[in-house]
Design goal:
Blueprint: H1 4-18, E1 23-29, E2 35-36, H2 40-47, E3 52-58, E4 61-66, E5 70-75, E6 80-85, E7 95-101, E8 106-111, E9 117-121, H3 123-131, H4 144-151, H5 158-163, H6 173-183, H7 196-215, E10 256-260, E11 263-267
Parallel strand pairs: 2-9
Antiparallel strand pairs: 1-7, 3-4, 4-5, 5-9, 6-8, 7-8, 10-11
Helix pairs in contact: 1-7, 4-7, 6-7
Length: 277
């Protein structure tokens, strides 16, 4: 599933291509269940004639802000991509939504597994989406003290806690594993057991790995492409994720894989030793 870096790059690469363009209609919508909760006819009527004033991101949502206080919120889920194409370019089989722009180009929502979702939000709906998510980990206001407050008193294991969008926005399976390796924290360590030094290390690690992944335009393990159709490169720089059986880059110990909260988790049993209880 695309995580914060991939969604950030999706938004940035769309913004550079479609900001200021006006939506003129739909060419294709063959999977109506991606719309929450509108019909295809209502969706097209509401977006047609509206200018895209800004493209942004909140958590794992791409936000197309439209004229007159309407926002198209798009969640890529497992396999979604948003790309911009010239008029004559054919659409692939799994492109289930095509939005037509006033210059003839089109936005494709390619979603092989059909898990992606699209919502149209008024200001109240946008406020509700915002309130449903925790702080953005790359904002200046996300300090070590902020993270300490989130972790305080919680006995939840740190790995699944990092994936809880209500607590920290945009973190996902890949970058949680990477950040925990950088911080030398075992993924099964209860959040409440992390001391001040551990919190500071984890805060620094989260921000560092997300920043690096954005610089490398995200990770493309299978489907992910940015708005220009390009793959990301962060998978070439993984520290621990998807490296089970390979030597730890820090100490040489074999990286292990476990399943935590139904997610594959990778860690070094020496560098990220779980303290004895």
């Amino acid at each position: 599933m695309p995580e914060l870096p991939e969604v950030e790059i999706a938004a940035r690469s769309l913004a550079s291509q479609v900001t200021g363009r006006t939506i003129v209609g739909l060419e294709r919508l063959d999977w109506e269940r991606m719309l929450e909760p509108l019909s295809a006819e209502a969706f097209e009527a509401m977006i047609s004639g509206r200018c895209i004033t800004q493209v942004a991101r909140r958590a794992k949502w791409v936000l197309l802000h439209l004229a007159n206080d309407l926002t198209m919120a798009i969640h890529l889920r497992m396999s979604g991509n948003l790309t911009v194409h010239d008029p004559a370019e054919p659409a692939r089989t799994h492109v289930h939504l095509i939005i037509c722009l006033d210059d003839g180009r089109r936005i494709f929502f390619d979603d092989e597994r059909k898990f992606g979702r699209v919502r149209l939000l008024d200001p109240d709906g946008m406020a509700a989406l915002d309130a449903a998510h925790g702080p953005e980990p790359l904002e200046e206001t996300f300090t070590a003290a902020t993270l300490a407050h989130i972790l305080a008193g919680r006995r939840t294991k740190i790995k699944p806690l990092l994936l809880d969008q209500r607590l920290i926005a945009g973190m996902g399976n890949i970058y949680a594993s990477e950040a925990l390796w950088l911080a030398r924290l075992h993924p099964l360590l209860p959040a409440v057991a992390i001391d001040a030094n551990g919190v500071a290390a984890l805060h620094q690690a989260i921000r560092a790995i997300l920043t690096q992944a954005i610089e490398h335009e995200g990770s493309s393990l299978r489907n992910y492409r940015n708005g220009y159709g390009r793959r990301g490169q962060q998978q070439d720089y993984f520290l621990v994720y998807d490296r089970a059986g390979q030597p730890c880059q820090r100490c040489g110990t074999t990286i292990e894989r476990v399943v935590i909260a139904q997610r594959s988790t990778f860690f070094c049993p020496v560098c990220q030793r779980l303290p004895e209880s």
